[in-house]
Amino acid sequence: MCKLSGMDPFERHGIRLLSPSSLALYRTAPWLWCIRYLFRVRDDEPAYLWRVRAVEAGIDAIVLGDAADDVAIEKGRRSFELFAQGEISPEIDKNRRAIRKWFEEPGHYFDIWENL
User: Fold this and answer.
1) 72 in Cβ contact with 58 (< 8 Å)
2) Cα(97)–Cα(113) distance, integer angstroms
3) Which one of 38, 78, 97, 113 is at 20 to 30 Å from 27 when CA atoms are compared?
4) Are 42 and 22 in contact (CB under 8 A)?
5) Cα–Cα distance for residue pair 80/60, rounded to 1 Å
6) DSSP-derived 3-state class of residue 115
7) What pLDDT digit, counting tens, does each position of 1-59 carry?
8) The whole model's pTM is what?
């Protein structure tokens, strides 16, 4: 008989805890969950880069697609979530909450530019 047959599947893969972020990731992207938790491959990209990409996606929507501010912010949030994949660490949440602010503060510059 195989030594692994009596083991719990989580124990077999060395998973001791299923955190809320882990479950959210599995629900959103099961393939990414498998890469992170079964194969133990982690990305080292900091969350602020995801925020920069999110803001860039929103600005592209405004400049290239003539999108309204709310539409651009939502596009930025969706872009951020593609990278975050349900993670809920304090650093990620801080960057997630900052997306709207990054659109609102420079927004008046776009208004001035439109009126030139």
Assistant:
1) yes
2) 27
3) 97
4) no
5) 14
6) coil
7) 455 566 777 787 777 777 777 777 788 778 888 888 888 777 667 787 888 888 888 88
8) 0.53
